[in-house]
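Propose amino acids for all 404 sites.
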C-alpha cells in the first residue's frame, strides 16, 4: 500500500510536518470520520452553528477548489511560491486540500451525505499557497532561494487583509523571524485567530522542542492525540502546547476528488481551526484571546490528567467550547469603566497634568542637614545649662543658714 508524506517545508529552518497517508474510498469516508468528530463533540456544536459567514485562511500548499466536497467554498488567493517550480508545472495541492476539507468540507451527493464533512461545513476557505509538497520539482529551489524567506509572514498579512477570521497554519519551522512575530501581532490586532501545529518531532524530554509559529505568543498551539485521547507518539511536547485534537487515522480529501487517511499535528490543527471558526461564526467580534480561553477552558483532559506539555489543557470539544464562548461573549480583554485607561490612547495622555519631575540638590541637602544637626546640638546644650542651674538653686534652698 502506497504511503506518502503530505507536508512540505518553508525555506531555511522550516521543519517537515508530515501527514502519512493512504488513499481511501469515498463510500468509507463519512463512516471513518465518526470517531474523530465524535471525540470533539461536534453534534452538540452543530445545533448552534456550522460556521456560516466565517472565512478560514489555509496557509499551505494550495487547495483544490474543484473537489466535490469543497466546491463553492474555496477562494483561491495568492501563491507566494511562484517561480519555485519550473514553468508549466502545476502545484499538487495535496496537503492544503486535505487540511481545508477537515475545516470546511461539506460533502457531496443528496443532502451532502457522502464524502468529507468538516468541522465548520458552512465556512469559506481562502487558499494561500506558502509551501510546496516535498516531491514537487521546485522544492529545493523554494528552500534555498532568499526570495521565499518571508513567505509565511507575508501570507499571514495577506490573509488578514483579505478578511480572514481564522488562519490555519498546519506548518512549522524551527525559528521565528522578526517579520513572523510582527505578522502574528498584526493578525491578532485585527481580531484574527491563529492556530498552528506544535510539530511532529515526538520529543520526550521535559523541555521539548519548540516549533514556530505555534510557539509565538498569541498563537494557539495544537498537539495530536490518539483515539484513546493519549498523546500521539510523534506529537511534540513543549510548554507552548495549549490543547490537542485527534491526529491519528484522520480521513480527509485530496485533489482530484480523492480521499486520504493520515496522521499528524497538521490534522489536529485543522480540526481546532474548525472549532475556532464555529466560535467566530457565533460571536464574530470575540477577540483571539477570548477564543483561545474558550477553547482551552472547555477542553477535556484524559481521565486522571491535568495540564501537561503533551496535550496542554486537554482535547478540544466543540460543544463545550461554544458554551464557554457564550459565557465569555459579554466580556472584553481590557478593563472598562471611568477609572480604566482607554486602550486607544497612549498612557501619557491618561493624566490631565504633566507629571512633575523633582531634581534632588545633594549640596543643599547636606547644608540643611548640617544646620539642622547644629540646631539640635545647641538645643541640647541649652537644656543642659538649665538643668545645672536648677539643681544649684535647689541645693541653696535646702542648706541651713548661720544665725546671727
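Proposal:
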Amino acid at each position: 500500500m502506497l504511503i506518502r508524506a503530505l507536508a512540505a517545508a518553508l525555506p531555511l529552518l522550516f521543519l517537515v510536518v508530515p501527514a502519512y497517508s493512504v488513499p481511501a474510498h469515498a463510500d468509507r469516508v463519512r463512516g471513518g470520520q465518526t470517531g474523530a468528530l465524535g471525540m470533539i463533540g461536534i453534534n452538540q456544536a452543530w445545533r448552534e452553528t456550522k460556521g456560516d459567514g466565517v472565512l478560514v485562511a489555509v496557509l499551505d500548499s494550495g487547495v483544490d477548489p474543484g473537489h466535490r466536497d469543497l466546491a463553492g467554498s474555496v477562494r483561491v488567493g495568492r501563491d507566494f511560491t511562484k517561480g519555485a517550480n519550473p514553468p508549466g508545472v502545476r502545484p499538487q495541492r495535496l496537503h492544503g486540500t486535505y487540511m481545508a476539507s477537515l475545516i470546511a468540507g461539506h460533502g457531496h451527493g443528496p443532502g451532502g451525505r457522502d464524502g468529507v464533512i468538516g468541522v465548520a461545513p458552512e465556512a469559506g476557505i481562502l487558499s494561500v499557497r506558502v509551501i510546496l509538497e516535498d516531491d514537487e520539482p521546485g522544492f529545493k529551489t523554494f528552500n534555498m532561494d532568499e526570495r521565499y524567506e518571508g513567505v509565511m509572514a507575508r501570507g499571514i498579512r495577506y490573509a488578514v487583509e483579505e478578511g480572514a477570521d481564522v488562519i490555519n497554519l498546519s506548518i512549522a519551522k524551527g525559528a521565528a523571524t522578526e517579520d513572523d512575530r510582527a505578522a502574528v501581532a498584526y493578525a491578532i490586532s485585527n481580531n484574527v485567530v491563529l492556530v498552528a501545529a506544535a510539530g511532529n518531532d515526538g520529543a520526550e524530554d521535559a523541555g521539548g522542542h519548540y516549533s514556530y509559529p505555534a510557539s509565538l505568543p498569541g498563537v494557539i498551539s495544537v498537539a495530536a492525540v490518539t483515539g484513546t485521547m493519549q498523546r500521539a507518539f510523534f506529537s511534540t511536547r513543549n510548554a507552548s502546547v495549549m490543547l490537542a485534537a485527534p491526529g491519528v487515522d484522520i480521513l480527509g480529501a485530496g485533489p482530484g476528488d480523492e480521499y486520504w487517511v493520515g496522521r499528524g499535528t497538521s490534522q489536529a490543527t485543522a480540526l481546532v481551526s474548525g472549532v475556532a471558526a464555529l466560535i467566530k461564526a457565533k460571536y464574530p467580534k470575540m477577540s483571539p484571546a477570548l477564543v483561545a480561553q474558550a477553547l482551552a477552558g472547555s477542553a477535556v483532559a484524559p481521565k486522571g490528567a491535568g495540564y501537561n506539555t503533551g496535550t496542554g489543557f486537554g482535547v478540544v470539544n466543540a460543544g463545550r467550547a461554544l458554551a464557554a464562548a457564550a459565557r465569555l461573549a459579554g466580556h472584553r480583554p481590557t478593563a472598562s469603566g471611568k477609572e480604566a485607561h482607554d486602550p486607544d490612547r497612549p498612557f501619557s495622555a491618561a493624566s490631565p497634568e504633566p507629571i512633575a519631575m523633582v531634581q534632588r540638590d545633594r549640596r543643599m541637602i547636606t547644608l540643611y542637614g548640617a544646620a539642622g544637626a547644629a540646631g539640635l546640638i545647641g538645643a541640647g546644650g541649652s537644656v543642659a545649662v538649665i538643668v545645672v542651674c536648677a539643681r544649684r538653686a535647689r541645693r541653696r534652698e535646702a542648706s541651713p543658714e548661720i544665725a546671727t
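The chain has a mean pLDDT of 86. Residues 51 and 123 are 5 Å apart (CA to CA).
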